[in-house]
Design a protein that fits this description.
By secondary structure, the chain is an alpha/beta fold. It has helices at residues 16-27, 34-43, 47-58, 64-83, 101-114, 128-138, 145-159, 161-168, 181-192, and strands at 5-9, 29-33, 91-95, 120-125, 172-176. The chain has nine helices and five strands, in the order βαβαααβαβαααβα. The structure holds BIS(adenosine)-5'-tetraphosphate (B4P).
Length: 193
């Protein structure tokens, strides 16, 4: 059976969102991007969005409690709908979450409650120069040189420790994120079998 509970980890601009969206479609997985969910809150100008907007614009991480509340409610909803036998995706793909050890530990506890262990953690690896090029090309509000540099620093300090955390649990597989979108998708597909 194909692996169907997946995490995508990697530096900003590695292409997590790009690959996650396509993979979720191909395999009928629930795609949860904390970045997209936060941006939706910002656009809707909710209380949560107002709190997140300034933090995101600085390239820092939004508070763990806030992000966790979002992920928890979505995963619990899906689990409840599965146990009622309703149609819908049976697996999920978390893109950009967790982003630090506290989030990883909270996720572990949540998934243990739901009896849904992680099958695979995909680490997308790319050089800083290429990350910078891709993000400047994308041109989102938080994609300017200074903020990108800060996001890379935040990644190194807070997110990169997840690599050892998941490697130790024998869940981590690294993928070279340089090349065409299709070539990278094929590399990821090979890990799912
Ligand atoms: P995210 O939304 O997660 O975005 P990202 O890491 O910047 O980008 P990603 O790796 O998904 O790259 P993409 O596919 O778009 O985070 C944004 C902010 O949200 C964070 O800084 C933080 O403030 C907040 N946040 C999110 N999750 C959080 C959490 N768990 N806790 C706290 N805060 C959180 O690709 C980038 C560009 O490259 C695109 O233009 C794409 O078209 C291009 N591209 C992709 N693949 C390519 C390829 N193979 N070749 C050439 N270009 C490619």
């Amino acid at each position: 059976m194909t692996k169907q509970r997946l995490l995508f980890v990697g530096p900003p601009g590695a292409g997590k969102g790009t690959q996650a969206q396509q993979l979720a479609l191909r395999h009928n997985l629930l795609h949860l991007s904390t970045g997209d969910l936060l941006r939706a809150e910002v656009s809707a100008a909710t209380e949560l969005g107002l709190e997140a907007a300034a933090v995101m614009a600085r390239g820092e991480l939004v508070s763990d409690a806030l992000v966790l509340a979002i992920v928890r409610s979505r995963l619990e909803q899906q689990s409840a709908s599965l146990s009622r036998g309703e149609p819908g995706p049976s697996g999920w793909l978390l893109d950009g979450f967790p982003r630090n050890l506290a989030q990883a530990e909270a996720l572990e506890a949540l998934l243990s409650d739901l009896d849904q262990p992680i099958d695979l953690v995909v680490l997308m690896e790319l050089d800083d120069d290429l990350l910078m090029q891709r993000l400047l090309g994308r041109g989102r509000a938080d994609d300017n040189t200074e903020v990108i540099r800060h996001r890379l620093e935040v990644y190194r300090q807070q997110t990169a420790p997840l690599i050892a955390y998941y490697r130790q649990r024998q869940l981590l597989q690294a993928v070279d994120a340089e090349g065409s979108i299709e070539a990278i998708a094929e590399r990821i597909e090979r890990l799912l079998a």
